[in-house]
Each structure stands twice: as structure tokens, then as C-alpha cells.
Amino acid sequence: MQPADLSAIDIVTAIRQGDLTALQCTEAFLNRIEQLNGSINAFLNIDRDGAMATATAIDARRRAGQPLGPLAGLPVAVKDALCTADLPTTCASKMLALFQPPYDAHVVSRLRQADAVIVGKTNMDEFAMGGSNENSAFGPVHNPWDLSRAPGGSSGGSAACVAADMAPVAIGSDTGGSIRQPAGLCGITGLKPTYGRVSRRGLIAFASSLDQVGPMARSAADCALLLETIAGHDPGDSTSLAVDVPRYTELLEQPLTGVRIGRVPEHFAAGLDPEVAKGVEEAFAVFKAAGATVHDIQMPHAKYGVPTYYLVAPCEASSNLARYDGVHYGHRCAEQSQRTGTKTSGSELPLVEMYCRSRGEGFGPEVKRRIMLGTYALSSGYYDAYYAKALKVRRLIRQDYLDAFQKVDLIGGPVSATAAFTLGEKTGDPLAMYLVDLYTVCTNLAGVGGISFPCGFTKSGLPIGFQLQSPALAEPLLLRASDRFQRLTDWHRRRPSLPASATSLPVARAPH
Predict the structure, then answer these.
(1) Residue 78 · residue 118 · CB < 8 Å
(2) Which of 177, 174, 232 is nearest to 203 (CA)?
(3) Could you give the 3-state DSSP secondary structure of residue 140?
(4) CA torsion angle for 123, 192, 194, 273 (degrees, to 10)?
(5) How many CA atoms lie within 13 A of 295 on its CB side?
(6) Rg for the chain (alpha carbons), in Å?
(7) Measured between alpha carbons, how far is 348 from 334 in angstroms, rounded to an integer?
(8) Which mean pLDDT values do the consecutive 10-residue runs of the chain (512 residues) have?
(9) Rounded to whole angstroms, how far apart are CA atoms 199 and 240?
(10) Catalytic residue list contains 358
(11) H or E segment and range at residue 108
(12) CA–CA separation, 244 and 482 (whole Å)
């Protein structure tokens, strides 16, 4: 029995029944991580000793007949934006390169309580700002389907590690598509829950009104398993919803007969790659065969989603990242003073110079760009023209969803306009990079749920992603529809061909 060939549900079942030990499973995935991470760079920190100790303890408890959690022995990878008390949390930034959190994020605590085995922290775009995972201070992640291509971002490390069978499931975060877009480009399933469905406590903030934590896995069924553990009210998060958590895995069997799926014609306009369009249209046909109906609907303000998002998110980032000043938090410079020409420690520099140089050294180019965009839009004389207007358009976008969900139960369409693009292809054109979020940002602006999963492949062998969006707290329907699609197709079962051993790449490494 090869653990990498099993679903997360099958792994948990096999360990519970004694057909597989937690130690065997954990060691198999750790060995694969060490074999492949040099070529993919999906992990920034690998916790072999901690993971093996946790797995050993789980096996001992099972042999003793003690109760185990619902994820007992399941290896899980965690995006490096979530705090872990036993591992560094860098957010893929030099600013936090040496940060060791004093506590676990709420989601991480839930995973530990469920007896999951955390195998390591995954690479990402710095502070979750990016759509290609090329903004990491510790080198880009490489897409397992083609190592010359981007995995998407910002949860690119989490997506790539699941696609390469380095972990059966992973945790990501989604601010404007950062779970769904890399899931689509890497050929896996990724769920962005309703805002407030999963606690954000311990998630290093990018844009607080948009950020949401969610599961990434091979299948919708495995996402359902993980969501049952991480969802739920957290009194420590004021935005957490105090509503019961359904047993998502038990609701997958219901048929799709009568489910209405909306199709937005504008999503198929110029700019959508013909191969992607064909795969998405064929996915609609699968849903029809499963008993659903498809209806064209209008989302008149969706075209304003990207400009609205790239005002709201940078404004919130400007505020959230102000704390990293080299005094309270984050990297502090330690070079000679440009003012006096003398060698000093960072604490001896003039205060403003120390602030500027610490932030200049600690943040990468994309983070600086977004901080400057947000600071400008919030500044005196520009607030009403930019940020306040963006909030009004955000409300109109949300109303579009409310109106649409009076007519349909779900909204379907592409995740991204193209399959995975070449590393470096868009880095010189920020606008082109921002447009990769064209189909995903409105989900976050409206606070509704969204999921992506593979619906085909291009002629060159790259995954094509399909996205479903739902009303708030309709994750049971999202997962049921996605699971039904995956029972009728086998796109999610395909695996990339990877080298037998890692080929080391010249990338920087996060401190261990």
C-alpha cells in the first residue's frame, strides 16, 4: 500500500483500521518531500522530527485503544502565512525570516486537536501578494506539470505539494483567488469558504476583509473532510461566524437533479484561451448530464472586480503591514548610516532612517508596490476618489451576487483565462499579472464561497480549472456539485510525471 496513491479519506480509514500506521504514512510523504522539493521548492520548512514524533504517538494511542481525532495520522502541509508555535512563520518574506510565533493559528490548533500530522510549511507569494508564487523571498515554486511554469499564487506551494503527492492535503489562504487559482493551474481541488466560515486568528493579515483560510486536496471529498475540522466559530476572531458546522462528507451523496448553475457570457469574451473555454463548456455539459440545469445570467459589475480589488486590498495591506517597522515587529536594518557614514547597529540610526531602511530591506518589490498603492489611495485628498468609491462598487458587486442567487443555485465558469504560464512571463508587467485574478476576485469582494477543480487538460498537458461559486454558507452544495463532477470524470486523478530524484535549483532557503 503506497500512501501517495491513496486519498485523504482512504489514509484516515486505513490508519484507523490498522492497515497502515501513521508512522509509515508520514515517513512515505516526508521521503517524497525530500526527494522532490529541490526541483519544486514547495516547502520552506520541513518538520521531519516533529512529524515523526507525532505519528509515533498516534500509533501508540491506537494500539492502546485510546480515542483518536478524525484526521488521525493524516499528513497536512500548512501555508507559511499561518502561525505555528513549533516552526518559523516567514510569510515568504525577509521581513519575517527569523519569526518564531509564540502560538498556533486557530486552524493549526484544530488540525492538531484532530491528530493531523503537520509535515511542514509551504512556500507562497510574499505576504500572500501575487498570482504566480514568484514573489517569494526564498525562490519561486515550480509547477509539477511543467517545472518551467508557475503554479499560481499566492498558495502556490500548497497547490504544488498536493499536485506532486508531497502531501495528501494542504491548507491555503485566499484573498482574491489564492486558493482557487493555484488549484486550477496545478490540477487539484481548492475551496475558498464563505468569509467567516473559518477563523482567521493566527493568519498573518494581508487584507482583513478579504482573507479566508481553506482546504486544498486532490478531490472535493478530501476538501470536505478537511473543512469539517477547520471550520467553526472562534471567539478569538470577531469576524468568525457563530453557526454550526455541517458534516460535509455525509452530504456528498445527494443528487444534483434540479440544481441551477449560472453561466456568465462575459466570462467567455476575448482574452479567454480557446482551450480553456472548450474545457469549461464541456464541464457544463457534465453537470447537465448529472441532472443540473445551466442558465445564462448577468453580473453587470463583475468587469469592475479587478480595479475594485486592487484598491481595497492594497489599502488594507498598507494598514496591516504598517506594524513591520523594525521596532515592534520584523526585520531591523544593521548597516552603516548614509547620513554619517559610520557603522552602527539598526537601533542607533536616526528613527526615520531606520524605519525606511528596515522596511526597504525587509519587503520585496510587489509588497512595496501594493503598500504604496494603498497608502496613496488612503491619503488626504484621494480617499473619496479611490478607496471610498471602491467600497461603493464592492457593494454593487455583492448585490450582483445576491440578485444572481435568486435565479440560480451556483455560478460556474473558468478559474483563469489561461493554463499555467511560464515563470517570468508576467513579472515585468504588473497589470498583466493582476489580470490573472479576473475570475476570482469578485468571490472575495462579495464574501461568498468558491471552489475550483480540474475539468480538462490542454494539448500541451496542462490542467484547466473550473470554478463554482455559491451563496454564503452553501459549502455543502459546492462540495456536493464538485464531488458529483469528479465521480463522472477522472481529471482529478491524473498525476504529473516527475523525475525520480530532485534536481536542485538555485533558490534561497528559509531558515530552519
Answers:
(1) yes
(2) 174
(3) coil
(4) 130
(5) 17
(6) 22
(7) 9
(8) 93 97 98 97 98 98 97 98 98 96 98 98 98 98 98 98 98 98 98 98 98 98 98 98 97 96 94 97 98 98 97 98 91 68 60 92 97 96 95 98 98 98 94 93 98 98 98 98 98 90 46 46
(9) 6
(10) no
(11) helix 106-113
(12) 22
Q: Global pTM?
A: 0.95
Is 79 designated active site? yes
How many degrees, rounded to 5, is the angle at CA 316 between CA 328 and CA 152? 100
- 3-state secondary structure string across 225-291: HHHHHHECCCCCCCCCCCCCCCCHHHHCCCCCCCCEEEECHHHHCCCCCHHHHHHHHHHHHHHHHCC
Q: Is residue 216 classed exposed, middle or buried when 0-12, 13-18 and 19+ CB atoms within 10 A define those classes? A: buried
Burial classification of residue 435, based on how many CB atoms lie within 10 Å of its CB (0-12 exposed, 13-18 middle, 19 or more buried) = middle
C-alpha cell at 97: 525570516
Residue 468's nearest CA partner among 421, 419, 394, 404 is: 404
Can you list the domains of the chain with their CATH numbers? Answer: 3-245+259-263+408-486 (3.90.1300.10), 331-362 (no CATH)
Query: Looking at residue 343, what is its pLDDT?
Result: 53
Q: Kindly report the CA angle at 127 between 344 and 418, in degrees rounded to 5?
A: 140
Active site residue: 79, 94, 192, 426, which one? 79
Record the cell numbers describing residue 120, joined without a space.
Answer: 511542514
Relative to beta strand 169-174, strand 189-192 is unpaired
Residues 6+ apart with CB under 8 A from 417: 271, 272, 273, 276, 435, 436, 438, 439
Residue 374, φ and ψ in degrees, nearest 5:
-70, -40
Report d(CA 163, CA 148) in Å as an integer: 15
Contact partners, residue 39, CB within 8 Å, separation at least 6 = 142, 147, 498, 499, 502, 503, 504, 505
- Opening angle at CA 437, ends 44 and 472, nearest 5: 95
**Nearest of 433, 422, 402, 409 to residue 481 by alpha carbon:** 409
Closest CA to 394 of 300, 304, 469, 316: 304
> Of 93, 155, 178, 219, which residue is the catalytic one?
178
Is the distance from CB of 367 to CB of 130 less than 8 angstroms?
A: no
What is the reported pLDDT for 291? Answer: 98
pLDDT of residue 331: 95
Out of 93, 154, 219, 416, the active site residue is 154
Q: Is the peptide bond before 154 cis (omega within 30 degrees of 0)?
A: yes
Please list, residue by residue across 494-506, b when 16 or more beta carbons sit within 10 angstroms of its beta carbon and e when fewer do. eebebeeebeeee
Q: Are strands 463-470 and 410-414 parallel, antiparallel or unpaired?
A: antiparallel
Q: How many CA within 13 A on the CB side of residue 209?
A: 14
SS3 content of the chain, % helix, strand, coil (to 5): 40, 15, 45
Q: Would you state the pLDDT for residue 328? A: 84
Residue 74 burial class via C-beta count within 10 angstroms: exposed 0-12, middle 13-18, buried 19 and up = buried
State how beta strands 169-174 and 75-79 pair: parallel
